[in-house]
Amino acid sequence: MSFATRMMSVTLFLQIIAAFLFITATASSPPSGFTVDLIHRRTNSSSPRRSNTDDDQLRSSPYADIFFETSEYLMKLKIGTPPVEIEAVVDTGSEVIWTQCVPCLNCYKQRNPIFDPSKSSTYKEKTCNISDPSCDYTLIYGDQSYSKGRLATETVSIQSTSGHSYEMPETVIGCSHNSSGFITTASGIVGLSWRSLSLIFQMGKSMDGAFSYCFSPERTSKISFGSNPIVAGDGTVSTPMFFRKEKPGFYYLNLDAVSVGKTRIETLGTPFHAVDGNMVIDSGTTLTYLPASYCSLVREAVEKVVTAERVTYSDFDTLCYKTNAMDIFPVITMHFSVGADLVFDRNNTYVALNGEAICLAIMCAPMTPIAEEALFGNRAQNNFLVGYDHSSLKVSFKPTDCGVTQDKPRDSTSAASFLQFNIKFVLFIFVLSLIRL
Ligand SMILES: *[C@@H]1O[C@H](CO)[C@@H](O)[C@H](O)[C@H]1NC(C)=O
Ligand SMILES: *[C@@H]1O[C@H](CO)[C@@H](O)[C@H](O)[C@H]1NC(C)=O
Ligand SMILES: *[C@@H]1O[C@H](CO)[C@@H](O)[C@H](O)[C@H]1NC(C)=O
Ligand SMILES: *[C@@H]1O[C@H](CO)[C@@H](O)[C@H](O)[C@H]1NC(C)=O
Q1: Record's SUPFAM superfamilies (predicted)?
Q2: Which of 167, 313, 369, 426 is most buried, judged by most C-beta within 10 A?
Q3: What does the angle CA 318 – CA 321 – CA 324 come to, to the nearest 5 degrees?
Q4: Going along 80-220, which residue ranges are E strands?
Q5: Ligand nearest to the CA of 43
């Protein structure tokens, strides 16, 4: 299919999905008692964090190594008994923790071996019945990729600063048997939105819904859980996080304005303007997306500054120039409420393609399949320590060199991979319930 055709089908597809979204939002959430019960049961097990004194808790917090791959940040975690390592996309734009499982009806190619639940003594598939109605799930993401499979409970573990692993027995995970559209070698996705099936939610009260990560463009870095790794110090800015009833679980920030060089473009007076959240911070989406009407203002401001020759790539309406001089591009600043200004490095907001062109990495509709949604993607978050705190309802950013250990340098971006959009913002989640009975 040509890209244009694909986009048309995506658009059509999205209209259908949009029609479903409101119905499924409620249909999909498992009864709250279900999650509470799980957390309650876990608090009686013997995982290390509960035997901790408060003092221990302060010194020890769970974390995972993360690294960049193709267009995503992957974290390492272990599942099953005996534990098997998987690598999964860090995704604040969705909730389910899933991994590809055998038998594979339709699997994409991943680096690690595919998880075999029959070899784990703690794997317990959920069955559909009236008292516990969730079993099968379907997830569809903004770029039309999907994962379908069975919900199960399983032991999930990650590293901990205490040296012991941090174990989460009976964590609800998705065992994916049919997935497609992924441009990654990861085994699956770790959902981190604020909903009952996400990793952070299932960690329970002791974590306060708090976590932080630092995305290094080319080196290994970390994601840490709990309020211990709070983001503070020189250069830190914080902005309120908002939750929307109609799109539950997503972390909305409120973008007041964008500055292109010295030109400040207010959202006020555009349909994009809001006071209670208009942009989802989504670690699973690569580029940044703004709704068309407002985005065109930002783009025009860039066009006014850059005088290099324009180039176009296929059907895409990206703003690209034939140059390799990054410094001719204006610095972009995002102004979040209240007074949280993020001044981006040019590498956050522009991408150099094969040394032959430089493109704006902020995308406008109609290219975006999520035309009404503004997404703050992972590239723009590079080299910021980003902290989410549910108790204060704030997201904080601190400019940081995120690389910890030297790793292989990032390959120069090819036009093909840049133009292949990657949006792990979940559009649709459906947990098959009583309908099945
Ligand atoms: C909780 O832990 C206690 C002490 O270890 C044990 O006797 C009890 O059976 C546990 N309860 C459950 C529901 O596992
Ligand atoms: C996988 O799911 C897709 C989308 O629902 C469906 O069209 C396809 O038939 C499924 N593949 C298999 C092997 O079940
Ligand atoms: C319902 O399913 C759960 C596990 O999925 C099981 O523990 C429970 O016993 C089942 N209840 C009935 C009434 O079958
Ligand atoms: C931006 O990216 C280029 C190419 O990858 C790199 O050489 C440069 O050091 C980066 N600049 C910063 C400030 O990270």
Answers
A1: Acid proteases
A2: 426
A3: 130
A4: 84-91, 97-100, 124-125, 136-141, 146-160, 166-180, 188-191, 211-214
A5: 1
* Rounded Cα gap, residues 405 and 411, in angstroms: 17
CA of 405 to the centre of ligand 4 (A): 17
Nearest Cα residue to atom 3 of ligand 4: 347
Instruction: Identify the CATH homologous superfamily for domain 3-228+427-436.
Output: Acid Proteases (2.40.70.10)
What stretch(es) of the chain map to CATH 2.40.70.10? 3-228+427-436, 237-402
What is the CATH superfamily name and number for domain 237-402?
Acid Proteases (2.40.70.10)
For residue 82, whether the previous peptide bond is cis, meaning omega lies within 30 degrees of 0, is yes
Backbone angles phi, psi at 200, to 5 degrees: -65, -35
Report the chain (437 residues): mean pLDDT per 10 consecutive residues: 38 34 32 26 39 46 90 95 96 96 95 96 83 78 91 94 89 96 92 95 90 91 83 93 93 98 96 95 94 93 96 80 95 96 96 89 69 88 95 94 64 66 75 45
Q: Write the DSSP symbol of residue 435.
A: G
Is this prediction's pTM over 0.70? yes
Distance from the alpha carbon of residue 55 to the mean position of ligand 3, in angstroms: 39
